[in-house]
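Final report, closing paragraph on structural work. Over the funding period we assembled a curated collection of sequence-structure pairs, and we close with a single example.
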Amino acid sequence: MNIHEYQAKAVLRDFGVPVPRGHAAFSVEEAAKAANDLGTPVVVVKAQIHAGGRGKAGGVKVVKSVEDVRKEAQRLLGSILVTHQTGPHGKQVNRLYVEEGSAIDREFYLSALVDRESSRIAFVVSTAGGMDIEQVAHDTPEKIVTFSIDPATGIMPHHGRLVARALSLTGSLAKQAEALVTKLYAAFTAKDMSLLEINPLVVTKASELICLDAKMGFDDNALYRHPDIVALRDLTEEDEKEIEASKYDLNYVALDGTIGCMVNGAGLAMATMDIIKLYGESPANFLDVGGGASKEKVAAAFKIITADPKVKGILVNIFGGIMKCDVIAEGVVAAVKEVGLRVPLVVRLEGTNVELGKEIIAKSNLNVTSADDLDDAAQKIVKAVKELRK
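Its predicted structure, as stored:
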């Protein structure tokens, strides 16, 4: 789960992390009031969407009067902001963050994330603040310093000193860096984050180290421990199908292709999407029903797939272990009878109760194509979708 910048800064503020003052605004009047309340000569108006690259897309503007705040708020609220992370359709701006301006001297990059190789929290530090870190890693990897935290010891003073050295900070700024890293690590672990990105982390002309932007992602599996974080969820930033899937504990990600996929297991899902691409089509989703889904969950998953107008064909690829093939078959049959079937459907079942599953589908009198293996299934669904276009 992701949250907005102003929400992330509020979380950081609770841990004593230095962030600029600011107020969220949902209307032009609220934006003007926020600027008046701040009472600073320079104000920054920021569009709040779950995507990076807002500044380059015109979503962050520095202004010097309340009247200019009004103009920017009118321009941004309700507009569609297209950045390199939103895709061509962009995202609608429904809220703003009005923040005090900062006299910036230097900009840096700092993030914390879960390093799956070491199973530790890792920090990434760079002097190239304000830039896309992926581009920095590609063009000038020597500008990036990474290190991980041993969970047995937690954050230590030498970690802060390492950040200070990487950013060439000395004296008071080095001490501020040490304190900052300790607080960020405390926030990361306390709130079960999966990502905490500060870009840019800036040194002001008054020699203060502050977090000028903040991006947070949280481990969905740990959200039950953090009702305060769940309350920050903005459903307007999420795909409706993904929201519906979350109600049934289904792992669903909307994609841009034409073939809907229902699979059990992330590895099998990835293999299914790869082989669909191999034969010339693209997946419309990643949907993993998991190892212990019920008939009702399978039916819900099928309805979510068929609700996507981009879907021109469906591939059900199940290897029954804990998940039994007959349960999948019953769920698919129930969903098809309820919502109908307007596109080709190919089903490949293998594993526990496979013969019973095939029998259930065969006796349903539905227009379903059976497949012997994954390769056969992929070829059949791709062929069916291509024939529809003729």
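The chain has a mean pLDDT of 90. The radius of gyration is 25 Å. We thank the funder for supporting this effort.
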